[in-house]
């Protein structure tokens, strides 16, 4: 009988925190910028420079810990992790090994078959990011950019509780949502502000002990993570089936070739010669400080979801999509607060906004239009100043440029012509010019009126209300 294998997966998720400055100095954390311009003696590891801890980093770490049901380590400190790498300017990284700030948490995910499952969080610790190596293939050289060096990170280390790529993606999406709702990070995988390393092993179904695990790096999208998991699972099964052993190592995933290759043998903690960081004092976190942060925690998705269904009386499906991203939820609430009907606002966000995001390959976090402009657009429709076809055209401008719909409609002459006499004259000329359609309508083919409505709208350059056109046409044809 063929052996059945089970995949065992744990994740190390690095999240860049949304502070304005770095963890131990006042350099900017802004993404981009010319190489080595966001740097100083501290984050480039100059001798004699001393780190000073950014309080906001600790607050974000505690906020994420509370939202993921962790216990907060009220006496915690930093450790020095020693290793040499060209983009690591001090030849050590300031991290936390012995007393991480958060421990023993967990988040609930929904598996593919709809079951609820808690993925345990072993710990969350604070640390500094390294710089970035840029490989120049023309010059056959590597250049180093220290802009990212010293950017604050939290590393969220899960328990090995996940059993498939689907569960991993569900866990990452839940983490990303919690952190974005907290405002602790934008979690953009493509910019590296959220990165996941996958620890994966396989074992025979029913086995008690874990197999030998490998760690996979260089995963910068959910699709790449799913492909890497499937690829590594198959590779390990092939090794075991052919009587070979899985080697504990760090592997790099190449998403273009859909394959991974060994980078180095996996180090253990003792290889890094950790010792307490001598330049930083321990952090004492009082009960009062924790409670103050807890009191500032925003409404997270679960509570929002329940409130939307009762307060706004919108369907479950709408509520789920609107709360799936904090930016969508914020725009929805702000537009409704300006006096617009929740279902109408929801429709614009769920249909047109989602369509345009997909067309332009954007995330909801990239939305730039103001709720005031969406409210103005809905206002123009409700007042009968523009029809829905025109409104969609105007919304594309609102979406792309945050244009003021009232100004745009006025400047481009898109307002509905309210002169019934002029409209009636045009309808009569359309009826006179299309005797066949009129005959079809009178012979009982009621659909023929659709063609006449279309011709009228064309003649009016879209500046008529289809409902009014339909009503007038029916009166004229039936008289």
From TrEMBL:
<dbReference type="InterPro" id="IPR006075">
    <property type="entry name" value="Asn/Gln-tRNA_Trfase_suB/E_cat"/>
</dbReference>
<dbReference type="InterPro" id="IPR018027">
    <property type="entry name" value="Asn/Gln_amidotransferase"/>
</dbReference>
<dbReference type="GO" id="GO:0050567">
    <property type="term" value="F:glutaminyl-tRNA synthase (glutamine-hydrolyzing) activity"/>
</dbReference>
<dbReference type="InterPro" id="IPR017959">
    <property type="entry name" value="Asn/Gln-tRNA_amidoTrfase_suB/E"/>
</dbReference>
<keyword id="KW-0067">ATP-binding</keyword>
<keyword id="KW-0648">Protein biosynthesis</keyword>
<comment type="subunit">
    <text>Heterotrimer of A, B and C subunits.</text>
</comment>
<protein>
    <recommendedName>
        <fullName>Aspartyl/glutamyl-tRNA(Asn/Gln) amidotransferase subunit B</fullName>
        <ecNumber>6.3.5.-</ecNumber>
    </recommendedName>
</protein>
<keyword id="KW-0808">Transferase</keyword>
<dbReference type="InterPro" id="IPR004413">
    <property type="entry name" value="GatB"/>
</dbReference>
<feature type="domain" description="Asn/Gln amidotransferase">
    <location>
        <begin position="330"/>
        <end position="477"/>
    </location>
</feature>
<dbReference type="Pfam" id="PF02637">
    <property type="entry name" value="GatB_Yqey"/>
</dbReference>
<comment type="function">
    <text>Allows the formation of correctly charged Asn-tRNA(Asn) or Gln-tRNA(Gln) through the transamidation of misacylated Asp-tRNA(Asn) or Glu-tRNA(Gln) in organisms which lack either or both of asparaginyl-tRNA or glutaminyl-tRNA synthetases. The reaction takes place in the presence of glutamine and ATP through an activated phospho-Asp-tRNA(Asn) or phospho-Glu-tRNA(Gln).</text>
</comment>
<dbReference type="GO" id="GO:0005524">
    <property type="term" value="F:ATP binding"/>
</dbReference>
<dbReference type="GO" id="GO:0070681">
    <property type="term" value="P:glutaminyl-tRNAGln biosynthesis via transamidation"/>
</dbReference>
<dbReference type="InterPro" id="IPR017958">
    <property type="entry name" value="Gln-tRNA_amidoTrfase_suB_CS"/>
</dbReference>
<dbReference type="InterPro" id="IPR023168">
    <property type="entry name" value="GatB_Yqey_C_2"/>
</dbReference>
<dbReference type="GO" id="GO:0016740">
    <property type="term" value="F:transferase activity"/>
</dbReference>
<dbReference type="GO" id="GO:0006412">
    <property type="term" value="P:translation"/>
</dbReference>
<keyword id="KW-0547">Nucleotide-binding</keyword>
<dbReference type="GO" id="GO:0050566">
    <property type="term" value="F:asparaginyl-tRNA synthase (glutamine-hydrolyzing) activity"/>
</dbReference>
<comment type="similarity">
    <text>Belongs to the GatB/GatE family. GatB subfamily.</text>
</comment>
<dbReference type="InterPro" id="IPR003789">
    <property type="entry name" value="Asn/Gln_tRNA_amidoTrase-B-like"/>
</dbReference>
<dbReference type="InterPro" id="IPR042114">
    <property type="entry name" value="GatB_C_1"/>
</dbReference>
<dbReference type="Pfam" id="PF02934">
    <property type="entry name" value="GatB_N"/>
</dbReference>
<keyword id="KW-0436">Ligase</keyword>
<dbReference type="InterPro" id="IPR014746">
    <property type="entry name" value="Gln_synth/guanido_kin_cat_dom"/>
</dbReference>
